[in-house]
């Protein structure tokens, strides 16, 4: 199981910068060649809502003394920084600065050029032809050509590939023969010339453009030891990535920081700030920002937080609603959780309003479907809100055969109803545990929480299957299919629903937006009833950053990555 997710409400989360590393897909019919601004020039954020720093003289000396370095907090990456071979979304935050994809999206989720200056899509929506920009280079100065694109698509269709990319689900013509080892190349992938490459699918897929338009790996570097059916060596290279993005990796010190330096070979020009550091050590976000140890931090958009940030004087404050959703992943291999009635009871019986809205002073909303609130496919029509109702929860548990037994704990077939919960060490987890323990024990459910200070340790526990429930959130989502990938790629173990798969495939079979909306409405209604996971919340955040930083903007779909190459540090010494 591969984790593209990030733990819900993580304190030192650097805005979830990832796009391509997490398989985000466009929702649009790009049936003709596209041209537009480079991703670094894409407008982002809402300037009208920006609260500017009131007194830069209050800037701590630590931050004031930095002239060529910007520091941002990030939770515990594992060090696997090669796209398609990563362990978590936090690794993707790093790789999003080391790689620039063929295609990215603007603030409305529309596809715009990355390192592909344009593309063509055939009338039957089966053949995609990408035209690369001229003179592209990897960070070591070696050329980036159509051969590298073809190599990337090829290894993602290798039978030994076990990462989280969905390129191998696109049914590229000849990919099955390649996976079976009966062909030495993929028929549908054609290198036309050094700057042009095409791929032909066997069936239309509305997500194909940005799925294919993701990051490109160097064939010379990553492919020198490649043998068909043997990709284990790639994982050894993930800690020493060779990319083409605005920055290149300088040094990774586990538990402390990820150091990056500006890439002089970046296609859009060398970034304005020479050094960028992700501070990964555990600590208090407020303390890091107040003392100047980090230049940027994300906070829940509570009035208390906003007032406190204004009081600092030296930070700009930018409200932001990310395009993701939080959820409680359930272990569907456990018999009790295989029963829809139990899953519905767990949802009715949990006061999500108190946990995700009231406790955050309104800086959140309860979620009931696997979709971003700002998605064009979002709907509330026919959606059960599962308002807190313990009597309804008890009724469903009774109906499912779980009767109150000794000590007030429900039992069935001689086994007690127990929920082993995993969470990350942070205040939000403390709130969740306090409410969930009270709510679930009132239903006759034994609630056993386990809290992890280390995110990677939590993921390992999940992968080992020793849990019932765990808090996660998705990465940024562009296409509505993005929020559903976890149900089809094996990440939600034990989930295999033919009706869901039929609707999922139907939603990707056309590029017509209105037709897709109708499918996703039906699909969301179905998943709202089935509850393979418990949907929790949409977050409202504010980003606070050093008032010296110029040209920072935030995209709902790309986070900070597009604007970061243009960040500069103004001179405030007078």
Automatic annotation (TrEMBL):
Topology versus the membrane: Lipid-anchor
Subcellular location: Cell membrane
Family classification: Belongs to the bacterial solute-binding protein 5 family.
Taxonomic source organism: Paenibacillus protaetiae
Superkingdom: Bacteria
Entry-linked InterPro entries: Peptide/Ni-bd, SBP_5, SBP_5_CS, SBP_5_dom
Pfam families in UniProt: SBP_bac_5 (PF00496)
Protein name per UniProt: ABC transporter substrate-binding protein
Annotated signal sequence range: 1-20
Keywords annotated in UniProt: Signal
